[in-house]
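Progress narrative, work stream C.
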Amino acid sequence: MFIPFKQLPNNSRIWIYQSNKEFAKEQINFISEKAKDFIEQWTRHGKDLKGSFTIKYDQFLILAVDENFNNVSGCSIDASVRFVKEIEKELEIDLLNKMNVSFRVGNHINIVPMSSFKKYVEEGKVTSETIVFNNMITVKEEFETQWEVPVKQSWHQKFLVN
């Protein structure tokens, strides 16, 4: 069952998918419609899940489940990945590449291969203060407080030159 993202408790489980390119308005509408439909049908062993989604910066799709209502299972997680793969195929985008790193310069979101991110750090184009997106976060409260952080406060700090 779908509920608005803001109504989910802070301990809700989340998955962050970053697109390799910005969504067009029509794509956001398409994703939103498909995500609502998916969440309305999303179950764990035949029992409804209470979930939601949000789209941030026209480039990130975040799925969420209130595990106080029902826990997700391997099968329900697999179903969500199949849903994301369908979106990828339909829109010809990449949402599942975990080897890309996302960071912000001003209002511009950059998503680059990890090797390029390392190079940008070495060249000084990315510094300890550059805002990165920590897509490894798994809980809504962390998403709201620790998703966008300076490199020096994230796992990305391992790329900083001493």
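Work stream C, second folded protein:
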Amino acid sequence: MGKPRTRQLPALADRISFLMHRINAQMQRICNPRFEGWGVDLVTSRMLVALLERGQMSSGDIVRLMALPQSTISHQLKRLEALGYVARSTDLVDSRIVIATLTDSGRAVATAANELSRSVTDALLDAIGDSEVEAVRAALKRMDHALEMLSVEDPQVRPRPARARVPVSPPPARDADDRRQSRGGRL
């Protein structure tokens, strides 16, 4: 990481990171009640809209798009599958890769979520103004990239690797009488 700059830190309410937090919190407050009837929230609705726009996607592609941990995406895909909105399958070439595809009911929910997104986007664009939209979008993309680079470069920000597993010795072999007793005790 490069040498840190020393800028005067504005009050919390004026910090860009805090304003992004407030905007996301406002969006959740507006959108989540509308999504409750479908059993989804703002994050899962965005996943559904991504599948609507792009077609089937691997869980890894969704992770990269959403910038969320693999475990979160896996959990959300299982929830969406249980709700009947997504079908999960494995890649034909690599069975470790999970592919998500919208179902018909998932397509209906994604379409409705996309319409809500349109109304929220219109309100945001009206607030920004036509002359500044592209500049704001470009600035947000640069901010996203800067945070992505920070997570790669800074060991305190980067996700910690999973703890190494300690090899476990296999249990001692049992003879037939031990196995019968053990099974009988569990039933």
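The CA atoms of residues 47 and 53 lie 10 Å apart. No further action is required on this item.
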